[in-house]
Each structure stands twice: as C-alpha cells, then as structure tokens.
Specification:
Layout (H helix, E strand, L loop, with lengths): L4 H36 L3 H20 L5 H16 L3
C-alpha cells in the first residue's frame, strides 16, 4: 500500500477511471451484441436500429477516451458491413 498522499490519491483516481471505462466498454459490447443478434435473426430493420445505437455508443466511448479512434472506426466498419451484407 502506498504511503505518500499523492500515491494514495492516484490509486483512488485510477480505480474510479477504471470503473467508468469498464462500464462504458460493457455498454458498447452489449450494443454490438444486439446488432449481431438482429443479424442472426435476419431482422434487417432491428439490425439497422441496433447499428445506429452501437455506432453512437462507440463514438461516445471514443470521445471519452475509452477506445482509440481507429479501433472504434474498425468496429463500426465491420458492423456496417455485416448489416449491409444481409439479404
């Protein structure tokens, strides 16, 4: 355990940020799963709606610094491609 006051604060701040990032990442993963679930069910309208929500969640996560912009762009691109490939 840290003895210096600034080190103690750093531990607390890191825990807070880790919890925030974990929550945001979990929300993004859920949104992405909903897109793939709609694709599996062959429901194009639900897939498009879920894609919009997932894209928004990814963009917000990127803006907050949870994901790198290229990671977010790659994920959005793959989701869009999967939805567009639907019959």
């Amino acid at each position: 355990m840290a003895n210096i006051k600034s080190a103690k604060k750093r531990i607390l701040v890191n825990k807070t940020k880790a919890d925030r990032n974990k929550s945001i990442k979990s929300g993004v993963k859920t949104a992405v799963k909903k897109v793939y679930a709609a694709i599996e069910a062959n429901d194009k309208e639900a897939a498009k709606t879920a894609l919009t929500a997932a894209t928004s969640a990814l963009d917000k996560a990127t803006k907050k610094g949870v994901y790198h912009k290229n990671t977010s762009a790659r994920k959005v691109s793959r989701l869009s491609l999967a939805v567009n490939k639907m019959a």
